[in-house]
Amino acid sequence: MASDTRNRSKEQQITEISDQIASILQEIKFGSIEIIIHDNKVVQIERKEKLRFDI
């Protein structure tokens, strides 16, 4: 039973991380996304966006 709760929580975390990445991908025009992983877990997502101007 406890492992079911942990698995559901892990699935929810994976869904939340996936949603965050998808949201960033939809919003960013130029730049990069870096996903930091420690011990098989996503611990940080970095977004670097470039603004380009036609002058």
UniProtKB/TrEMBL annotation:
Stored InterPro entries: DUF2292 (IPR018743)
Domain of life, per lineage: Bacteria
One Pfam family this sequence matches: DUF2292
Organism per entry: Candidatus Methylobacter titanis
Protein name: YezD family protein
